[in-house]
C-alpha cells in the first residue's frame, strides 16, 4: 500500500486528499531544516525564517506537487479497477465452470426468459414502434364510415361522401381515396392463368403517402383516359415475379383481364398499400359516379387517407370530420343518416386489433422474465449459502465487503450475458417460428426480424437481469459476519432467518406471477374454445371451397354468366363423389357486403335511417350444400328466373328483428335506397350463420338468387363431397379447364380450414400465452422445489436431533410444510392481485367467458397446488427420512 | 548556482535522487542533505524543484513513497526505488559517465583545432 498513512491502513478509508499529504511532507522538510539550523546555533525564530527563505515559493511547490499526486492517484485507481474487473470475470467464469449443472440450468432458464422477451419485443417493435413505410407516417390519417347500428365501425365511404369531405375539410394538405376491396385481375404467369388483386387508387394517393416509384413514376391525373385502364403501377413483388426485376420494365405491356396495359412505374420494396397486399395498382377517378344520384351516395366502396397540415392534430382533424359527418347526415338523411365518420391515425388503422394481444404478450414475456430472475436469485442465494465458508475465509483474510459484492455481481453478470447470448439465438428461432404462425394475424407491413434495437434492448435486459438477481445474494454476503459464519459452519447450523425470508419472498413472488399468467392463459383458452364451440350455423366439414373468376370477352354478353354457372354446376354435380354444388358471391363466414332495405307498406322509420343487413347472391343449392336449415317457406328453385318477380331468403335473425310478429314470409321489401325499385318478395327464412366467428351473435342476413341478382365476375365455389373434399380439387380444376382453359381456380381448401383461418389471429396469442404460462409454471415449480430442498437440507441436522429425541416423521413433515405453506399462501394472495390486473387487460379479448371465470380460477389453483405438491415431495421425504445417526455423526 | 541556468537540472537532479535512493529509502529532506554532502556542497539542491521532481518520478514509476517514522520519530514520507527505478539508475549513470568524460576530454584537451593553427 503506497501513499497511505500506516495508522489508517486497516480501516480501508480513503487516502487523505493530495493537498493534505503534500502539506505533511513539506512541513516535515521545513521542520527538519529548522532543527538543523538550531543545532548549528541559530535561535528558533531566525532559523524558521531562514528555512522558509531557503525553500522559496512554498505555495507554488505545494500546488504543483498536489496536482501531480492527484493525477497519479487517478491513473492508479483506473489501473486497479480494470485489474480487479479482469480478476472478477476470470473468477466468475472459473466458478461457473466448476458447477456446470448449476451454470447450465441458469443459462438455459435465462435464455428462455430473455429469448421470449427478445422475440416478443421484435414483434412489438416491428408492429407498434417501427415507422410505417411512408414519409412522416405520423401525419397520416385514415377516415372510415361508422355505421350507427354497430354493424361496422370501419366501413367504406360513398363517392359522394368522399367528394364532400375533400371539398369541405381544412385539416389536410391532401386527401386521396382508394377502393377498399381489390378487383380481380387475371394475368398470365408461367404456370397458367393466375387471379391477382388490383387496387384502384387516386393518383394523389402516392403523393399523399409520400411514396415515390423506384423505377418510372407513380400516377398523374392524365393517366385516366376513358373507361379502360391503360396504365398500371407494379408493387415490387409483382415486378420481381413477372419481370424478374428487369430494370427496363417501364413502358412494357402486360395483359390483365385480357387487355394490354402499360407499366409506368415500380413501387419500393417495403411499400404496403392501405388495403394490404396488391398485385397491381390502377388509377381511380370516382367523379363519374357522382353523376348517378343513386349510386353516388347509396353504396360505400371507398377508403380515404389524408395528410395533416402542419400543426393540426389527429384529434383536431377528428373533430372537424365529425362535424362534416353530422352535416352530411342532415343533408342526405336517407344515405348518410345511419353513417358517421370515424377518424384515426393511419398507424392505428393498420395496427388494428393487434395492439392489445401484443401488449398482453409483452406483459407475459416480462412476467416470465421476472420469474426467471426470482428463480435465479433464489438459486444463487442457496449457492451463496454453500459458499458462505469461502466468503467468510476471504473476509477474514482481508477482502473488503465491497470487493466480495462486486465479485458476486460480476459472476451473475457473466451468467446473464451467457444467458442473453443464448436468448438471442433462441429469439431468432422463435421469430422464424412466429413468421410461420403469425403471418395472417399481424398487419401486413410487419417484418418479423431481430433488429439491432431488439438486440440492444435484449442485451440491456440481460444486464439488468444480471444485476437484479445478483443483488440478493450480494446483499446477504455484505452482511455476513465472518466469525459467526465460521463458527456456525463448524456447528452446521440452519440458514439464517433473513436469508430464508428472502428466499421465501422470491418464491412467493414467482407463485404470484405464475398465477397471473396461468389465469390469463386460461381465460384466453376458454374464449377461443367458446368461439370454436359455438355453432357456426352451417356444416363446414366435407365442403370444398375455391374462388373463381370469369374473365374474357365471352362473359360480357348478357346472360353468359348465368349460362356458365348452370353448365359448370351441372358438370360438377355429375362428378363422382360430389353431393351438392353451389356458387355464391362470398365465402360463408366472410361476407363483406351489406345492403340497406325498406319494407313495403311499412311507414319509413322516423329516424330516417335505412337498416343494413349482410347480403350475398347464391345459387339454388347453396343452403343444401352448406347444411343451413330452412325454418319457414322455401329456398330458391327453378321458378326464380331472371325475368320472374324477384325473391329473397332471409335469416332468422333478420326475420326476428324486422318481423317480430313472425309474418316475414310473403311480405315484400325494397333493396337499396331507390324508392322506385322493384319490390322483392320474402319467400323463406333460413337458420342463422355466424359471419364473424369472433363475434357471439349472428348478424341479420339476406340472400338473393344469383339469376335475379347477378354479382359480377368473381364467385366462390362450394362443393359438398361424399368423402375427402380435397380429393375433388383435381376433377373440379379439370372440369373448369375443359369449359374455359383461361379461367383460374384459386384458394382451394376445405371450408373447415377457411373458417379456421378467420380464427388464426385469435389462436396465436392464446398459444403463446399458454406457452408462457407453462414455462412460468415450470420455473415456479423449480423455485418451490429449490426453496423446500434447501430448507430441508439446512435443517437436516436439526431434524436428526428431533428424530433422535422421539419426534415422529409426520411432525417433521408438518414442520417443513408449515414453513413453506406461509410463502405459498403469500404467493397466492399476491396472485389474486395479479389476476385482477390480468382480467382488466384481457377484457377486450374475452368472448363467452367472464373475466373472473370460476372454472379458470379453480383450474389454475389446482394446477399450482399439484405442481407445488410434486415439487414438495422430494424435500419433505428427505426431511422425514433424516437418519439421526448419520446426521449427528 | 549553476543548476539554475544550466538546463541540465532536471535530468541531473533525477539521477542524483536515484543515486541517493540506491543506498536505501529516504525522505525528501534526507535526499537534499545527502546530495549536498556528497558533492561537498558544490551542488545546492533547489528545494522548490526537488519535490516536484520526486512526484514526477513517482508518476513515472521509478520511485514509490511510503509513510514511516524519521530518525527522530517524526512521521515522514520515505521514497524507495522500484525495479524500473533501479534500471533507470544503471542506464542514466553510464550515460552520465559517457557524457561527463566526453565533456571533460573536450574541455581539457590541449590540441588546438585546425582552423586555429
Mean pLDDT metric of chain A? 81
Residues in helix, % of chain B: 55-70%
pLDDT averaged residue by residue of chain B: 84
Low-confidence spans of chain A: pLDDT under 50, at least 5 residues?
A: 1-13, 489-494
Neighbour order of strands in the largest sheet of chain B: 1-3-2
The SS-based structural class of chain B is alpha+beta
Radius of gyration of chain B: 17 Å
Q: Count every helix of chain A, treating DSSP H or I runs of 4 or more residues as helices.
A: 26
Order of helices and strands of chain B: HHEHHEEH
- Largest protein interface, residues of each chain: A-B, 30 and 24 residues
* Biggest pleated sheet of chain B: 3 strands, antiparallel
Distance between the termini of chain A: 46 Å
Strand content of chain A: 15-25%
What descriptors fit this protein?
heterodimer; A: 889 residues; alpha+beta; 6-stranded mixed β-barrel; 5-stranded antiparallel beta sheet; 26 helices; elongated; B: 117 residues; 3-stranded antiparallel beta sheet; 5 helices; 3 strands; 14% strand
Structure description:
- The complex is a heterodimer of chains A (889) and B (117).
- With 889 residues, chain A is an alpha+beta fold.
- In chain A, 53% of the residues lie in helices and 16% in strands.
- Chain A is built from 26 helices and 23 strands.
- Chain B has 117 residues and is α+β, with helices and mostly antiparallel strands.
- Chain B contains five helices and three strands.
- In chain B, strands 1-3-2 form a three-stranded antiparallel β-sheet.
- In chain B, strand 2 and strand 3 (75-81) form a beta hairpin.
- Classes of the chains: A alpha+beta (889), B alpha+beta (117).
- The A-B interface holds A 1-6, 21-22, 24-26, 28-29, 31-33, 35, 54-57, 60-61, 64-65, 68-69, 71-72, 75 and B 27-29, 32, 46-48, 51-52, 55-56, 58-59, 64-68, 70, 72, 74-77.
